[in-house]
Amino acid sequence: MTPVVHPITLLFASVFTSNILLANFLGMCSFISISKDQKSSFGLGLAVTVVMTITMVVSWTVLKLVIEPLGLEYLSFIIFIIVIAAIVQILEMLIDRLSPALYLALGIFLPLITVNCAILGAILFMQIRNYNFWQALSFGFGSGVGWWLAIMLLSSIRKKIDAAPVPAGLKGAGITVITIGFMAMAFIGFSGMLNVQ
Hints:
mainly alpha, 9 helices, 73% helix
């Protein structure tokens, strides 16, 4: 049964109160490694938002037209990974053909998205929660925007931290993990306002 959550409510909830990164801790590897640079963070966040939105719509269609009618639920995990990899490859070829400048600007970010577990996690949430098409679309777009917002916030904070007098024992990974913890607490603090399930 489809949960009674309006798509607009789901959009705001997936950006703020149930952020895929700070509430579910999915996609942390690229989040931590790329957030050192604001320009790279912006590019990766934009790429994640586009890919997450498109893969969510395509995965929902594949789920409803292929997986469920043929009883292939036991293969859904593999099918969704194939969908993500195929869409990233198609997008990479299209961008390379249509806009070489944008392709060079995105660089390694597009192939990195194939292994971003936030995208697969969002698709599995969509399947488990039995979202309809509009809910899947708003959840995918909102989760991408939420991921983008989180990485831009962290890259801005890390830029300030680089100029701050941080104790030697906390420099680098230590202060970054503490910062992410505070960010997660700030986002989870809104969790009672909107519910996604």
